[in-house]
Each structure stands twice: as C-alpha cells, then as structure tokens.
C-alpha cells in the first residue's frame, strides 16, 4: 500500500513536471480566453488577498484541494495540513509584523489544460512582492519571488492543487533618493555573502576599495572579515573612523564619572570657558549630560557658522542638535581639570585595559602607517591623508575592526560601570526622530517584537568624513553587534544590505527606522 501511494505521488509529480517543461516549449499557446484569465485572477486574489493578507482561513479551506502540495525553494515540501499550520503560525501569528503579498502588475499568465478538448485544469504563473506591515500600518518590502500554481476544475469549482514558490530574492530596501548622506540602497538583489567574488563585484560596482567587518554574537567577536574590490587589506588594517570617535569619548568620560573624578551635571564652565561664548547667558547651564546627548546648543562645527565663531543656538538641555563642538568643549574641560591630554586619559581608562593596541586619537610614532587605509572619493580616487597631531573627541580616531569590537563587547557587558550609571548611559535622553532618541554617546532605536524576535533596544552610531564611512550597531540585551569600517565615500550604500542580511526582520526595521 505504501509503495502504491509513493508511486501515485511520483506519477503526479512527473505529470506536473512535464507541464512545467511544456511551458518553456516554443509554440505553446497561452490562454486567450479572457473569461478564463479573469476567473484565475479572481482565484489568485482569494488565495492571497483574502487568505494570505487578511488571514481568512475559511476561504483557504474552500479553495484548496484535499490533495494539495506546496513546494518552496527554501522551505521544502508541505502537504495540506503542514501548509495550513505554516500559514497560521508564520503568516497570521503576529499582527504587529504581518507579511503582506502584492502581485507584480502585468506578470500573471494563465495556461488552459485540456483532456480530449475538455478543460480540466489551468496553470497560473506570475511574480509577487512581499512586505512586512508593522502595527502602525507602515510597510517595508522584504523580497520578491516567482510562483506557479496548478488549479484543478472540480464540478465547476476551481481548487488549488499544486504550488511552486521559487526564485526568492531579498529586497534591496529602496529609500528616498534625496537622502544622499544616508543612502543605504546597494542596488544589488542577490544575497551578498554567498561568495567572495560576489562581494568583490559589488565593491567594484560602487568604487569601494575596502570594508572591514566585525560581527559580535553572544558577547564575543564571531567574525572578523576584510572585503576588497581588489586585494583585501590585512585583518589589522587601521581606519580613520570619523564620528565613531564619539562613543569612545563618551565612555572615557563615563568611566571618569564612575571613578568619582567627573560629574555629569556640573557646569563645564567650572573648568573651561571658550572665549567665543564667555559672555553667553547659556554658559553656566552647559553640562556633560547635555554634550553626550547632543543637547549642548552648539552647532556641529563653528567653521560652518558665520564668522567662524562658536555660539549657543538655543539653551542647553531644551532640544536635540548634533554637535561635534560639544564633544570638543567637553574634552578641553576634562583636560583642564585633570591636567592630562585626553589621549592619555583614554589610554589609562580604556585602551590599555582592553588591549586596544591600535587605537589612538591622533597620529604618532605608535601608528603603523603601512596598515592605514586612506580614504577614497565617490569615483574611487585616493584622497590626501591628513595626519592630525592632537586629540579631537568628536572625530579622527584611528582604530581597527578588532579594537572597536573589543570596545563594543566591553560596553555590551556593562563596561564595569555602576548599574545605575550604565542605565543612565543607555536610556533615552532626547527625541531625535519619530523612530529614535539619543542616549549618552549613542543614538537609540527601540525595535518592536515580532514572532521571531523579542523587543530590543539598539545603540547605533555612524561616522562620515570625506572618503570615510563607518557604522557601529550594538544590542546590549542580546550582546550582539556589528561594526563596519570603510575607506570609501560610497560605503553607506552597503549598510542597509549588510545589516538586513545579518539581522533579518530586526535589521530591516532598524534600517527603515534610520529614515523616519
């Protein structure tokens, strides 16, 4: 009996395979009967709009053959019971992250199947797009696929008997083109990490000489990789990381607070006063907390302001405005109080204890210039190297992927801070956008839970100078993280793709949140 059943299934599969082969045969005539096409278009709508999108499983029961089989190029084979269970769990199980299917316009085709001139079935093929719809009804495109369905005509009723779902491709996540500085669309559909050749091709496409990547899982550096358009740099390649300097400076400051050598809420004017703001009424209210949460009231850089002078643009602590000047003001105050260069303070409190041997705030004899990766412009042209000779708490840090990952791992474990101080560091201090806030030294995103991912807060910081683009993403609750260092103006184009491929729905949500 078992052998006979297997033989029957084999025969049915062979018939279905033969039909698929016939689709590629020259001269095969598509259905020209408009009524038939409309009937099958209606059945497709019942299957996907009613059953899949709206989770009306009564409709699915009515239109599915008792001998139904489903074949997925990634999920394998399912019978009717398995298919229904998967729909209930994966498609209809979480209304806050609901998969949605949309038929690609103009792709649906229908082929009639006759037995001695009598219509008994129809083959339907097309392409569709998939999305995740959040609780607020916003949608993020997650991928595309092709499908072929066999509909059997049973007593004038169309019943779905076989489905092939194949050629699944992840979405490239397209965002507004005007967001030039935050362009995360690689324009590259296949999975990035399948082969080294594929990665090299993508880097060449975007004129990106190299990207260093560190992946943190379970509080450990799981992957340390270097990718290049041509020859990959060494694993200990040194990069300038632009504003990824700020989280380092923030933790150095908080370590001083933890040791009782500094105070978050004392006026910085006790230790340092910049001549440009010496007569400003706002001066005495400026604190370290304001600087680390970007509420200092300062512009990003004074050289971008009229007359190249520093001034308060609003009262500290009243709203968010990203400012490198604030971090530099803080550095000068710390140096004035402690009587030490900021580089030395960082070495003592952070770099030496963590064995961050290749991390420095400026160029000096300990920096191995042979390993340094110079920046490149959007056309791939090498840019001149500016060798800064004094610390800047907001930019210009030199480091390696491994060193920065050590810092992130240490931070995710609490950084040996008092628990109340660590909680103060990671809590939201000021709204940045609808989707994010700023903590102390990091931008924070709170990602809602899905059926496969609990809710989690994410700390993120980016860095950008001419020819340099960097990003660090850290999830302290699960002790996961990702750091990407690149010496290219174009590296941001890969961020969304890499983050979404590594972290799935969470990565897509995070990438999408960057544009809200």
TrEMBL record:
Residues 1-31 form the signal peptide. Residues 48-160 form the DUF4440 domain. The keyword Ion transport does not apply. Residues 196-490 form the Beta-lactamase-related domain. It holds the Pfam family DUF4440. InterPro entries: Beta-lactam-related, Beta-lactam/transpept-like, Diverse_Enzym_Activities, DUF4440, NTF2-like_dom_sf. Keywords: Signal. This is DUF4440 domain-containing protein.
